[in-house]
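Hi team, as promised in this morning's meeting, here are the two structures we talked about. I've kept the exact order from the run log so nobody has to guess. The first one is mostly here for context; it's the second one we should focus on when we meet again. Sequence first, then the predicted structure tokens.
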Amino acid sequence: MHALLLRRRCRSTQAGFTLVETIVATAVSLLGLTAAMLLNTAHLRMVKSARQSNAATLCLQERVEQMRLGDWRKITDATYLCDTLLANSALSAAPLDRTSEHITISAYPDPDAAQKLLVERRASGERVVLISGHGLTSQRLAQVEFKITWTGGDGRRRQRATTTMLSNGGISRLNLPSFGTTGGDAPATPAPAPPDGGASSTPAPAPTPVAATNNRNGGGRGTIAGKSGKK
């Protein structure tokens, strides 16, 4: 009898997992594996989204540089923008799906001084003039907004935009007075007249000669730490 009890105890200690325990362990393993796969998918989606955002930014920069290559008459002409600037899609837009572009040009600082210009390149490649921009050619400054829209990996439409300023004379001291005068030196202050209206006994100071290094018209020389540079 005692030997029989010992045999039963040995068999109970050597028993394996039950079917229920095996099913629960399998379910927990599957849940962990599924969570890891979902996390990896979300990570890949974020990487693709960041890549598309970077491509859209490069596309906007490319359009800005293309716009700066044209003169004022061209960039205020809706026909030129449709047939030349938007004739082909931007090279940086290759990673984007179903892209459409919008260019809006308005007078600055008063947007009501001229009609707004609005052109669009649709996802099908069709270019459309929505607003012609009548009167923009006679303006001196314009605010240009570039906008690109594309379809993201999740099927939603995404959008990115940038704004820049353009001048009809380029960036120079003539149309940007805050930069200072154009001659390189401040104008001389005239000597005060004598109070009695007669001739002054003090001789006028001789004009100071302008050094060759003050030439700002691209002469090829400059000044660094008080020393003239080499051509």
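And here is the second protein, the one for discussion:
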Amino acid sequence: DKIILVDNGSLNKKEIDQYIDYTNINQQKIVLVRHTDNLGSAGGFKSGILEARKHVCDYVLFLDDDNVPEDGWGEKIVGLVKFFAKEKVVISINRYNAVGNSVDFSIPDLYVKNYLKLNVIGDLFNRIKKYFIKKKNNKDIRVFPIVHTSISSYGGTVLPFSAILTTDLPKDIFYLYFDDFEYMSRIEKAGYVFYIVNKPTIKDIDSSFSNKTSSTESFFDLHSNLLKVYYYSRNRILLRRIVKTQNIVSLFLNSFIWVLGQIIFGLFLSKNIKHWLKVSGVLFKGFKDGLCVKI
């Protein structure tokens, strides 16, 4: 019924305005929310949700700026909504990143876990398990069309209107990364049940850092964005501090192991020692600020 477009400090405002004017000739379908400055994903989704609250509807689909749904996605989503036929169900659509890897998983024993509890050792075992499952033939992989899950990211999530109306807005202190998990965790606490579905699919045509196979490679890539490295490091810890899923000692140990592991492996992957030292410093600053809830 409506498309809410958040212009988050873009540099091509004239092109956007021309497109909206052309599209809205027959009906006012696109609603524009414009920021002079880039407020990050947290600020962008916060103002987008504020606008969405003005347009009474049944469901709201969230999309990141680089999400491209497959053809026919609208009919598939409508079919899913009718299938669930429950007001308190959140549907998360399977996403594929720029290099074709699945962002979300539809293998229950890998994906259904409490993401909000940082457990480096447990996550390592999950990654090993995922690797060996991928080594099998496709016919041996247990892929389910619909899987019960815990929370989700913004991109490709279908939320009942009641959820965005009654849940406090995303916390813009996150600026970038993990604000969606904090927001969705509050929706889950309000009694909404999350499911991830295989169809339709959404492709991420851009990548947060680079098209590397691991976060460590992305962090220490010579072209990595240090601002993103900082927020990724800080916010993955800040998330757990705010939702209080772990005591401070457990969080400190898990976070320290994670940061130290990134730095050690980064030394082997890095092609420039000065860049490695700079990225290592940024990771440690994020670690310290996250633990101290320094905004």
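Starting points for discussion:
The CA atoms of residues 81 and 279 lie 44 Å apart.
The mean pLDDT is 85.
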